[in-house]
Each structure stands twice: as C-alpha cells, then as structure tokens.
Design goal:
Layout (H helix, E strand, L loop, with lengths): L5 E4 L2 E4 L16 H32 L13 H34 L8 H20 L9 E4 L2 E2 L17 E6 L11 E3 L2 E3 L1 H9 L2 E6 L6 H18 L6 E7 L1 H15 L8 E7 L7 H13 L9 H4 L4 H5 L33 E7 L7 H7 L6 H4 L17 E4 L11 H11 L8
Parallel strand pairs: 5-8, 5-9, 9-10, 10-11, 11-12
Antiparallel strand pairs: 1-2, 3-4, 3-8, 6-7
C-alpha cells in the first residue's frame, strides 16, 4: 500500500497530492507575451532605480564641492564608471532576454498556452495601463492595451470576412459603454448584496439596444484616445450590419472626458457617426478634474525643492499622461501639448461646452447623506467632487450646463459604487425611455 505524502503545519495535516484549483494557479492567467512585457519592465525598473541612487549620490557630492558628470544627477570618475557599467550590463541583459523570449513565444503559444485573458489578468493589465500605459505604448511593450470595440467579450474586427457571427441580430440602436481609469469593459458587470448589476445589459434589454463596450489604454492622453475612438466609431457605423438609427453613450469616470474628446475631433474631421449620436449619460465624470491628481502635483513640487529629494521626484513622474490629464479634466490636444505636464500651473484648458444637439445627463455621487458646501467641494464620491461631477465651475465660461431634470445625485455612494447601484440603472432607464405615445 502506497502512503500519501502529508505536510504537518502547526498540527494541521495537509494532503500534498491534492492539486490546487486552476483559479489558484497564477500561470493560468498569463499569456506568453506577458513574460516578455514583464521582462522589459524589470529591465527598465533596474535602470530607473540606478539613476535615482546615482542622483542621491551626486547630491551628497554637491554638498562637498565635488563636481558632477555631464548631465544633472550624474557622477564622474570611478563612481560614474560604476554606474555606467550597471546601466550597460542591465541594458545588455534586457535585450538578450527580450530576444530570447521573442523567439520562444511561437513555441509557447503552439504548446497550448491560453490566449483568452482571464478576468483577473485583464484587471491587473488595466491597472498597469492606467498607471503607466503611455510608457508601455511608447516602448512597444506587449502589455500595452490597444483600443477595441467589443461585443459579448469579443473584439470587433471590420477588416475580416465574413462579419463577426456574434453581431447577427444586431439592433439599429447601439449603447456604447466606456469605462474609467485603470478599468476595463468587464468591470461593468458587478455584484451588490449577492445580486448582479450590469447597467449596460439591463438598459439594452429594456430598450432594444445592442451593447458595445470600449476597451482602451487609460494611461494615454485623453485626446489621444479621443482621436482613436472617433476613428473606431466611424468604422463601426460604416460596417454595422443593419442601418444605424441611434447611438447612446453611457460612460463612467474618465470615459466621459473621452467621449467629449472623440465627438469634438469627429466633428472637426467631418466624420458621420456624430449624426447618429442621441444621448450621453455621464456617471461620476471629473469634468473639471480631481483633487487627488492636484495633490500629486504638489508632491512633485515638494520633492523637487531640495537636492536630496529631487532624484525621488522621478518616482512621482512615473504616473501616466492619463492620470495627469485628470488634474483639471483635459479633453483636447491643446490642453497639454507644449506644456510640461508635471510643472505646476493654473488651469489653462480650452473651454469645451457640452455638445449641441445631444441630450446630456449627469449622475454624480457623494459620500455624504446630504448636500453642503464642504461636502460638495471636499468630499464628493471620494475621487470626484460633486461640482466637478455635475460640470459646475466658478468660471461661467467653463461650466457645463446640464438641465436640472438631467442631473441626479447618488447620496452615501462612492465613486466605484456608481457601477453597482440598481438605483443608477433605474435613473438612466427613466431618462432614456421614450415618452409614451398619446392615445387616440
């Protein structure tokens, strides 16, 4: 009789022959390309930490009157040679590893590695892109998310024949759903008190829409994503399997800035899809920015104020262009082009009103149980002040004018809870449901 291996930990016997469920195996959440992306980040992180250490080293030398190297924060002599050697070795190892993994990827994929990302993987990837997605895209890292329109979990491709089978039976009305920073399209599907809440599915079923989700790299500038989304929607309209009557948009958080940007550039470029746009519903959109990013900008300033902390300011500058756009709610190229996005300066956005000819609605949240001047400006939903969520601004030229009956406030509600509140679904349904035809 064979004995089963057991491990005794604090008196508890554990059967070592039992396999962990697949969901507990981290490897099940990885694609082969993820290994290459992580290796690139590790190489870049090593070089970045080395630069910070060298900067602190030179700051100490500065106090002793020892001159530095050719660039700010660089050392010279033997010390400089050591740091230069570390950079060189790290770069060489990184390139060799990248080349090796690139060659292995076809073999790993043919060996049966799963290509469909798990929900856990997509969540981690969305967070990573939100924090440093601009860097991932600029460095060609395979972890960078590309913008896609999605239906039933599949990316829509308009360059293949026949058209995707899952668009069979598509309605002439589209409900476009756009997620926020560090999120993805799967996170519209939530649970609250054991009950599933999915605004998009419920509204689509009730009003006859076909739901289409946008997945995008939230670390890019909002206006960069705006250009891309404008082009993607034009492709959707041109290839939709039935004549398209209506596009209604439901957005959460940063998604509201994105649709305003996309609509602006679509009209600038004479695209056709804005003619079909009927409604935009904003959920917790920071139309005038978020205090948390403005606080982050203060940290940059403080860290850069002394020679000993200045090297650490590089850590604060890791945050993405998408995040710094949330300082004031940037929507257009002109809001950030030609500016140092980490330099502290007043709000200099180009005012952009709500689009004409489109019904716009705002749902804002607050953690408070009732409105007050302090709660509106400081509390909000934990991320977005109530005034920002409602488009209100001290400067009338920047205020977004939502009709009173097109505003709704969710009390005792946090920013993320807007996705899991059935009351939000009901309010959006109330706004979007056409009025009953008068009886003859």
């Amino acid at each position: 009789m064979r004995h089963r291996p057991w491990l005794l930990i604090r008196g508890a016997a554990i059967d070592m022959t039992k396999k962990k469920p697949a969901s507990e195996n981290a490897l099940n959440h990885l694609r082969p390309s993820d290994l290459r992306g992580v290796a690139q980040l590790a190489t870049q992180a090593t070089r970045g930490v080395t630069r910070i250490v060298e900067g602190v080293h030179q700051s100490v030398y500065d106090t002793m009157g020892v001159p530095g190297g050719p660039a700010t924060g660089q050392t010279r002599g033997v010390t400089g040679l050591v740091y230069k050697s570390i950079h060189g070795v790290t770069q060489a190892v990184g390139k060799a590893l990248d080349m090796a993994l690139t060659g292995l990827m076809p073999l790993l994929e043919s060996a049966g590695a799963a290509q469909a990302g798990s929900a856990q993987r997509e969540t981690v990837l969305a967070i990573l892109n939100g924090v440093m997605g601009d860097h991932l895209a600029a460095s060609g890292n395979p972890l960078a998310i590309s913008m896609t329109l999605r239906h039933q979990g599949q990316a829509l491709r308009w360059d293949v024949e026949p058209r995707p089978a899952h668009l069979a039976g598509a309605a002439p009305k589209v409900l476009l759903l756009i997620h926020g920073l560090c999120m993805n399209d799967l996170q519209w599907h939530t649970e609250k008190d054991g009950k599933v809440v999915d605004h998009g599915e419920t509204i689509s079923a009730a009003l006859g829409y076909t739901p289409i989700h946008v997945r995008y790299n939230t670390g890019l500038h909002t206006s960069q994503n705006g250009h891309q989304l404008a082009a993607e929607l034009e492709q959707m309209v041109q290839h939709w399997p039935v004549p398209l009557d209506e596009i209604t948009v439901l957005v959460h958080s940063m998604g509201g800035l994105l649709i305003r940007s996309a609509l602006y550039y679509a009209r600038q470029d004479g695209l056709t899809w804005p003619r079909h746009l009927k409604n935009i519903v904003f959920l917790g959109t920071p139309h005038h920015g978020s205090p948390l990013e403005r606080a982050g900008n203060w940290v940059d300033t403080i860290l850069g104020s002394t020679p000993f902390t200045a090297p650490f300011a590089r850590l604060g500058k890791l945050r993405s262009a998408g995040i710094t756009d949330l300082r004031y709610g940037h929507v257009l190229d002109a809001d950030w082009q030609g500016h140092d996005r980490f330099h502290r300066k007043p709000d200099s956005r180009v005012p952009l009103p709500l689009p004409e000819g489109v019904a716009c609605y705002a749902v804002a949240a607050t953690l408070a149980s009732e409105r007050s001047a302090l709660a509106d400006r400081l509390t909000g939903d934990g991320l977005v002040p109530l005034h920002s969520g409602l488009g209100e601004h001290d400067d009338p030229a920047r205020s977004l004018i939502f009709a009173k009956d097109s505003q709704w406030i969710a009390f005792n509600t946090g920013h993320m809870e807007l996705l899991s509140r059935p009351e939000v679904t009901q309010q959006v349904l109330k706004w979007l449901t056409p009025p009953a035809e008068p009886q003859a």
